[in-house]
Write a structure and sequence with these properties.
The chain is of the alpha/beta class. Helix content is 40%, strand content 18%. The protein is built from 7 helices and 9 strands. The chain has helices spanning 2-17, 34-45, 64-67, 76-88, 143-154, 159-176, 179-182; strands at residues 22-28, 49-51, 93-95, 98-99, 104-105, 109-111, 116-120, 135-140, 185-188. Strands 2-7-1-8-9 form a 5-stranded parallel β-sheet. Strand 4 and strand 5 form a beta hairpin. The longest helix is centred in the C-terminal third of the chain and has 18 residues, at 159-176.
Amino acid sequence: MYILEDILDTLFARMQDAPAPLITAVDGRCAAGKTTLTARLGEALGAPVFHMDDFYLPFARRTPQRLALPGGHMDSERLEAEILRPAAEGKEIIYRPYDAHADSRGAETVIAPQKIYIVEGTYCLLPALDGYYGYKIFLTLDEQTQRARLLEREGEEKLPMFLSRWIPAEEKYFSACSVRQRADAAFDTSQFSSAL
Protein backbone atom coordinates (compact mmCIF):
# COMPACT_ATOMS: atom_id res chain seq x y z
CA MET A 1 0.00 0.00 0.00
CA TYR A 2 1.58 3.23 -1.12
CA ILE A 3 0.23 5.37 1.75
CA LEU A 4 1.76 3.14 4.40
CA GLU A 5 5.04 2.86 2.49
CA ASP A 6 5.25 6.63 1.91
CA ILE A 7 4.64 7.41 5.56
CA LEU A 8 7.07 4.77 6.80
CA ASP A 9 9.81 6.11 4.53
CA THR A 10 9.23 9.63 5.85
CA LEU A 11 9.13 8.55 9.48
CA PHE A 12 12.29 6.45 9.23
CA ALA A 13 14.09 9.45 7.70
CA ARG A 14 12.80 11.85 10.35
CA MET A 15 13.70 9.47 13.17
CA GLN A 16 17.30 9.42 11.94
CA ASP A 17 17.49 13.22 11.92
CA ALA A 18 15.48 13.93 15.06
CA PRO A 19 17.52 14.98 18.11
CA ALA A 20 14.49 14.24 20.33
CA PRO A 21 11.69 11.65 20.24
CA LEU A 22 9.49 11.96 17.15
CA ILE A 23 5.79 12.35 17.91
CA THR A 24 3.52 11.74 14.94
CA ALA A 25 -0.13 12.79 14.70
CA VAL A 26 -2.72 11.10 12.47
CA ASP A 27 -5.89 13.19 12.29
CA GLY A 28 -8.71 13.17 9.77
CA ARG A 29 -12.29 12.37 8.95
CA CYS A 30 -14.13 9.50 10.61
CA ALA A 31 -13.90 6.24 8.65
CA ALA A 32 -10.85 7.47 6.73
CA GLY A 33 -8.68 4.72 8.25
CA LYS A 34 -6.81 6.48 11.05
CA THR A 35 -6.95 3.58 13.49
CA THR A 36 -6.05 0.99 10.85
CA LEU A 37 -3.14 3.04 9.55
CA THR A 38 -1.71 3.77 12.98
CA ALA A 39 -1.96 0.13 14.03
CA ARG A 40 0.15 -0.80 11.01
CA LEU A 41 2.59 2.05 11.61
CA GLY A 42 2.91 1.14 15.26
CA GLU A 43 3.60 -2.49 14.41
CA ALA A 44 6.16 -1.63 11.72
CA LEU A 45 7.96 0.91 13.90
CA GLY A 46 7.56 -0.69 17.31
CA ALA A 47 5.89 2.55 18.39
CA PRO A 48 3.23 3.03 21.06
CA VAL A 49 -0.06 4.36 19.69
CA PHE A 50 -2.33 6.65 21.71
CA HIS A 51 -6.00 7.06 20.78
CA MET A 52 -7.97 10.28 21.13
CA ASP A 53 -10.96 8.13 22.17
CA ASP A 54 -9.11 7.68 25.49
CA PHE A 55 -9.05 11.45 26.03
CA TYR A 56 -12.66 12.57 26.00
CA LEU A 57 -13.50 15.28 28.50
CA PRO A 58 -15.17 13.93 31.67
CA PHE A 59 -18.84 14.85 31.97
CA ALA A 60 -18.24 17.09 35.00
CA ARG A 61 -16.09 19.40 32.86
CA ARG A 62 -18.44 19.57 29.86
CA THR A 63 -19.75 23.09 30.29
CA PRO A 64 -21.65 24.87 27.49
CA GLN A 65 -18.72 27.25 27.08
CA ARG A 66 -16.23 24.41 26.73
CA LEU A 67 -18.41 22.39 24.33
CA ALA A 68 -18.88 25.45 22.11
CA LEU A 69 -15.16 25.33 21.23
CA PRO A 70 -13.99 23.25 18.26
CA GLY A 71 -12.86 19.97 19.85
CA GLY A 72 -13.96 21.23 23.27
CA HIS A 73 -15.25 17.78 24.24
CA MET A 74 -11.68 16.43 24.19
CA ASP A 75 -9.35 16.55 27.21
CA SER A 76 -6.44 18.09 25.33
CA GLU A 77 -4.93 19.31 28.59
CA ARG A 78 -4.61 15.75 29.90
CA LEU A 79 -3.25 14.51 26.58
CA GLU A 80 -0.57 17.17 26.78
CA ALA A 81 0.27 16.58 30.44
CA GLU A 82 0.24 12.78 30.44
CA ILE A 83 1.41 11.89 26.92
CA LEU A 84 2.88 14.67 24.81
CA ARG A 85 5.02 16.53 27.33
CA PRO A 86 6.61 13.42 28.90
CA ALA A 87 7.18 11.91 25.43
CA ALA A 88 8.84 15.09 24.15
CA GLU A 89 11.06 15.23 27.23
CA GLY A 90 12.13 11.59 26.90
CA LYS A 91 10.40 10.61 30.14
CA GLU A 92 8.30 7.63 31.15
CA ILE A 93 4.59 7.98 30.30
CA ILE A 94 2.00 7.08 32.92
CA TYR A 95 -1.67 7.47 32.01
CA ARG A 96 -5.13 5.98 32.53
CA PRO A 97 -7.42 5.84 29.45
CA TYR A 98 -10.80 7.46 29.89
CA ASP A 99 -13.94 5.40 29.22
CA ALA A 100 -16.67 7.81 28.10
CA HIS A 101 -19.44 5.21 28.54
CA ALA A 102 -18.54 4.68 32.21
CA ASP A 103 -17.33 8.28 32.74
CA SER A 104 -14.27 6.89 34.52
CA ARG A 105 -10.61 6.19 33.88
CA GLY A 106 -9.22 2.68 33.44
CA ALA A 107 -6.14 0.95 34.73
CA GLU A 108 -2.80 2.72 34.74
CA THR A 109 -0.60 2.19 31.70
CA VAL A 110 3.16 2.78 31.88
CA ILE A 111 5.33 3.22 28.79
CA ALA A 112 9.10 3.54 28.86
CA PRO A 113 10.74 6.29 26.78
CA GLN A 114 10.70 5.59 23.04
CA LYS A 115 12.24 7.11 19.93
CA ILE A 116 8.83 7.50 18.24
CA TYR A 117 5.21 7.82 19.37
CA ILE A 118 1.96 8.00 17.40
CA VAL A 119 -1.21 9.84 18.42
CA GLU A 120 -4.29 9.05 16.34
CA GLY A 121 -7.78 10.36 16.13
CA THR A 122 -9.78 13.39 15.17
CA TYR A 123 -8.86 16.40 17.29
CA CYS A 124 -5.26 15.34 17.94
CA LEU A 125 -4.17 18.34 15.86
CA LEU A 126 -5.81 20.98 18.02
CA PRO A 127 -3.61 24.09 17.67
CA ALA A 128 -2.60 24.07 21.36
CA LEU A 129 -0.86 20.71 20.80
CA ASP A 130 0.79 21.56 17.50
CA GLY A 131 4.29 22.19 18.82
CA TYR A 132 4.74 18.63 20.06
CA TYR A 133 4.40 16.95 16.69
CA GLY A 134 7.33 16.31 14.40
CA TYR A 135 5.11 14.93 11.63
CA LYS A 136 1.39 15.59 11.07
CA ILE A 137 -0.83 13.49 8.81
CA PHE A 138 -4.38 14.19 7.66
CA LEU A 139 -6.56 11.42 6.21
CA THR A 140 -9.64 12.24 4.18
CA LEU A 141 -12.23 10.52 1.97
CA ASP A 142 -15.24 11.47 -0.09
CA GLU A 143 -18.69 11.74 1.44
CA GLN A 144 -20.15 8.71 -0.34
CA THR A 145 -17.30 6.42 0.76
CA GLN A 146 -17.44 7.76 4.30
CA ARG A 147 -21.15 7.03 4.55
CA ALA A 148 -20.72 3.50 3.15
CA ARG A 149 -17.89 2.69 5.56
CA LEU A 150 -19.79 4.09 8.54
CA LEU A 151 -22.87 2.07 7.58
CA GLU A 152 -20.75 -1.08 7.43
CA ARG A 153 -18.91 -0.30 10.67
CA GLU A 154 -21.66 1.22 12.82
CA GLY A 155 -24.88 -0.17 11.31
CA GLU A 156 -28.08 1.64 10.33
CA GLU A 157 -29.00 2.38 13.94
CA LYS A 158 -25.90 4.46 14.73
CA LEU A 159 -25.37 6.06 11.32
CA PRO A 160 -27.79 8.99 11.89
CA MET A 161 -25.82 10.08 14.98
CA PHE A 162 -22.65 10.31 12.91
CA LEU A 163 -24.40 12.22 10.13
CA SER A 164 -26.21 14.68 12.39
CA ARG A 165 -23.71 15.14 15.21
CA TRP A 166 -20.18 13.76 14.91
CA ILE A 167 -19.42 14.62 11.29
CA PRO A 168 -20.65 18.24 11.57
CA ALA A 169 -18.56 18.66 14.76
CA GLU A 170 -15.50 17.29 12.97
CA GLU A 171 -16.02 19.55 9.98
CA LYS A 172 -16.34 22.57 12.28
CA TYR A 173 -13.00 21.64 13.87
CA PHE A 174 -11.26 21.00 10.54
CA SER A 175 -12.39 24.39 9.23
CA ALA A 176 -11.87 26.49 12.36
CA CYS A 177 -8.43 25.04 13.07
CA SER A 178 -7.21 24.73 9.44
CA VAL A 179 -6.28 21.13 10.20
CA ARG A 180 -5.62 19.93 6.67
CA GLN A 181 -3.59 23.02 5.84
CA ARG A 182 -1.40 22.56 8.93
CA ALA A 183 -0.66 18.90 8.20
CA ASP A 184 2.68 17.90 6.70
CA ALA A 185 0.95 15.34 4.46
CA ALA A 186 -2.63 14.56 3.43
CA PHE A 187 -3.90 11.31 1.93
CA ASP A 188 -7.29 10.49 0.40
CA THR A 189 -8.29 6.90 1.21
CA SER A 190 -11.51 6.87 -0.87
CA GLN A 191 -9.95 4.52 -3.41
CA PHE A 192 -9.71 1.66 -0.95
CA SER A 193 -12.59 -0.80 -0.66
CA SER A 194 -12.47 -0.47 3.12
CA ALA A 195 -10.70 1.88 5.50
CA LEU A 196 -7.11 1.17 4.37
